[in-house]
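Technical annex B. To support the medicinal chemistry partners, we prepared a structural model of the target in complex with calcium ion, based solely on the information shown next.
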Amino acid sequence: FQGSLIEQDLTGQHWVITAGPTMESIDPVRYISNHSSGKMGYALASAAIARGARVTLVSGPVQLTPPTGANIIAVKSADEMLAACEQSMSTQADVFIGAAAVADFKMKAASDQKMKKQSDTDEMTLTLVKNPDIIATLVLQKRAKTIIGFAAETQNVTEYAKSKLERKGLDIIIANDVSRSDIGFNQDENQVTVITKDKTWSPDKAAKSDLANQLVEFIQQYIKSAI
Ligand code: CTP
Ligand code: CA
């Protein structure tokens, strides 16, 4: 019923969306990750599919049912996520949305055996190195015509998000305040501020599915007016 009423105005477009956390191996039984649920990315995928887009959803490990009609690529680490994004955009996509909470660091050298406690010390030091910046890499490679990032911040939300927009060369950044426990990570609702080079828009707090529809509408308007 609902599907038949939604205008299929994204027909012919390919959208690639990342979602969820990444999981970085420490050893065969342990990992570094974060609390991202993947809900926002999955909601965006559903909203784009409902309007007729072909959607590739590159997903870190999450407990969600894949949206019907999405081409799901399941990944664990940031390195795998980047490779999957590059592969799915071997032909330039229309839209890329980086909704994943990519782990900023990975082990410099993950252990291939389970690490054992040392008996002579109470301390443990892991040496980490930066993960690739997936979205910045995709911008440099021009993998999509329009590239949208998220900015998870706990303070100076708009200011930090603006600097990320510029630093990474994004078209749009969607900022959310992850210090609030009622929205964001693992919640069903979200409140965001959408920032472009010359516009700032703060839609009301809403269910992630409602918000996803509004964000897809904003992106579509942005694409139309940028032409
Ligand atoms: N991102 C990415 N690859 C990374 C880190 C982040 O693609 N290695 C993307 C996220 O998917 C998001 C955007 O960059 O779309 C911003 O992520 P965020 O964690 O807020 O920014 P960082 O650049 O990692 O900066 P910091 O965590 O230090 O604030
Ligand atoms: Ca980060």
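Notes passed to the chemistry partners:
The mean pLDDT is 95.
The pocket of cytidine-5'-triphosphate (ligand 1) is lined by residues 78, 98, 100, 102, 104, 131, 133-135, 149-152, 164 (CB under 6 Å).
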